[in-house]
Amino acid sequence: MDFSSGRARLKQARLAGDRRELYPHSLQFYLDPPTENVSLVEFESFAVDRLKLLKVVENLGVSYVRSSDSYKTKLEAELRKLKFPYKALAEDDYEARRKDHISHFILRLAYCQSEDLRRWFLQQEMDLLRYRFNELSENLRQKFLEHVNLPFEAISEDLKNELANELCTSTPGMTKVKEQMFYKVGLADAVDLFRARRVFIKDGFAYVPHKEIDAIVLNNYRTKLSKALALTARSLPSIQSDERLQPLLNHLSHSYVGPDYSVQKNTGKISLEQIDALSGKSFPLCMRQLHKALRDNHHLRHGGRVQYGLFLKGIGLTLEQALEFWKKEFIRGKVDADKFDKGYAYSIRHSYGKEGKRTDYTPYSCMKIIMSNPPSQGDYHGCPFRHSDPELLKQKLQSYKIPPSGITQILELVKGMHYQLACQKYFELMHDVDDIGFSLNHPNQYFTESQRLLSGGRELKKEPSNSGNSQQKNNSQESMNSNSAPTSSNTTADAELEGLEAYFTED
Ligand code: SF4
């Protein structure tokens, strides 16, 4: 009698064919793209999970030494949680291997679109491969090397004993030859080690210690993946013509994976008088910069108005408050009240879903801010960690009393293109905490976490009287339908944002 569930039967049926042969190893170089049909739902969920994984890889790579136990334990936990292959399991992780394969290729499509994206993707994939390769047992490592056509052979104990002296003297830092495994590698694959005089050479072969073999494997993988990304980028035009895929891929490359920091949770909890103080205490640098520019110039160009306006909406400004806030500031500059009411007020109502298509827009995530619409001269939007000149960033941080050692750490992270981690460090220094305990993905997350910390874990105090309660009520129904955070695909969101930006184009 068959007691297996439908899902288990399906899995068995899949494995009964030749599908298992597709993934003979838990690890691969992703040389062949998947050829099976993948539903849009699976396409998106696989991609979002891999993106989450790569973000964890990035975070851990900066916070821990890669060979440390903490690094390995945390990464393994994440791989298990997201159901990716986490150890070289023998037979029964077909689904995990399939997900690993398909999700890699989807993100390859999404992350081949610019130099920045390619570099980020390549770095995280390399770190992931390094971890997994080093976790393989000796036997599986050998099999994997053969599988990816790098048939480096581990030398026998006899040969090792015979060459012990040479191996010891020719390999820097090598003291216990007996405890190390050595691989016999063709010279062409070990040129770097040979040039640096770090290996023993005999009869046209390099004898590479185990600790260096992962560098050779990774080099090989880097070359292959870089080429593949460049090739994929060339085929983008044909993908961009696919109206189902393109919005999904755009969302992924700008994607923010985390909770939704949209407006309705906080509406009406902030008063306009609080904003100046909050900008110094709880705004991330991008929003602090925008707020200061607005106060100084009584104006922001459209990129700044969209980014800052949606952030303020996210922290709880009601429509009425937003209209009052922007109007008060703008009429102190060159815009008179009439011009504001006719031009700018409409765009603000639009962003709150009260005009046009009535889309209730959500605040921008870090990825969206970092990856799209870079600021030009006279603009204040964007991410200062990504878009500011390092010297200007340094000056800004000094003016905010960040200690010199903290500034050095931030600038190091910026140099390594870890912009969100630089922002996390800024958070830690601003709040005098050692570890923020979350992964920063969103300016509104920064604000919420800051407020939580400053208030000792309590929620924001609600303002006793405000004009926003009715707005909150009206929006609550809309919010159920309009959560456009890109954790779930919203294929119309890009088009809608274009609509929004069109309303903000007046400088
Ligand atoms: Fe703003 Fe995100 Fe950049 Fe921080 S990392 S400054 S929150 S865009």
From TrEMBL:
Residues 455-507 are annotated as: Disordered. GO terms for biological process: DNA replication initiation; DNA replication, synthesis of primer. Gene3D superfamilies: 1.20.930.80. Residues 277-447 form the DNA primase large subunit C-terminal domain. The keyword Nucleotide-binding does not apply. GO terms for molecular function: 4 iron, 4 sulfur cluster binding; DNA binding; metal ion binding. [4Fe-4S] cluster binds at residues 286, 366, 383, 423. Its cofactor is [4Fe-4S] cluster. Pfam families: DNA_primase_lrg (PF04104), DNA_primase_lrg_N (PF26466). GO terms for cellular component: alpha DNA polymerase:primase complex. Coiled coil: none annotated. It comes from the Eukaryota. Keywords: 4Fe-4S, DNA replication, DNA-binding, Iron, Iron-sulfur, Metal-binding, Primosome. Residues 495-507 have a biased composition (Acidic residues). Residues 465-494 have a biased composition (Low complexity). The keyword Nuclease does not apply. Heterodimer of a catalytic subunit PRIM1 and a regulatory subunit PRIM2, also known as the DNA primase complex. Interacts via (C-terminus) with PRIM1. Component of the alpha DNA polymerase complex (also known as the alpha DNA polymerase-primase complex) consisting of four subunits: the catalytic subunit POLA1, the regulatory subunit POLA2, and the primase complex subunits PRIM1 and PRIM2 respectively. Within the complex, POLA1 directly interacts with PRIM2. Belongs to the eukaryotic-type primase large subunit family. This is DNA primase large subunit.
